[in-house]
Amino acid sequence: MTVASLVPHTDSGFMTLLPPNRVPGLSILLPSGRWIDAPGVEGAYVVNGGDILHRWTNERFLSTPHRVRNVSGQVRYAIPFFCDPDHDTLIECLPSCRSADKPAKYPPIRFGDYALWFARKSYEHMAHEPALPDTVVAPGARATARW
């Protein structure tokens, strides 16, 4: 049996909506480090928070690490809807998500610059494209997720 998979990753944008899928395969990484299979709920969408939601909310909302492992033996199709800001949108911690006790963890960045940085880190064919350095995009944070 062939197992089709998509490696663990987060989505670079704001939010991803996934319509119901009759063929299971989506797994979500919990903050505890344990993987769970996303439950299939008839008529319900899976909503994944992305890296931009994570940055805008100063980590109040997490970027959901997920993977796909189709071990069903059936063909599985997924049609995600990616909700992303315009490339010129400045991504800056929302005022309601920062305070003197909890300053912004990330510097402001335009979404297009973040998306290019993310693509360079995530896709081999983009590895040599010019992008901002890790120290500018994710100072003090994990620059690349490895599960």
What does this structure look like?
The protein is α+β, with helices and mostly antiparallel strands. It is 15% helix and 22% strand. It contains 3 helices and 9 strands. It has helices spanning 51-56, 111-122, 134-137; strands at residues 4-9, 15-18, 26-29, 35-37, 46-49, 66-70, 81-83, 90-91, 109-110. It has a 4-stranded antiparallel sheet, with no helix packed on it. Strand 3 and strand 4 form a beta hairpin. The longest helix is centred in the last third of the chain and has 12 residues, at 111-122. The two termini are 24 Å apart.
Helix-strand layout with pairing:
Blueprint: E1 4-9, E2 15-18, E3 26-29, E4 35-37, E5 46-49, H1 51-56, E6 66-70, E7 81-83, E8 90-91, E9 109-110, H2 111-122, H3 134-137
Antiparallel strand pairs: 1-6, 2-5, 2-7, 3-4, 3-6, 8-9
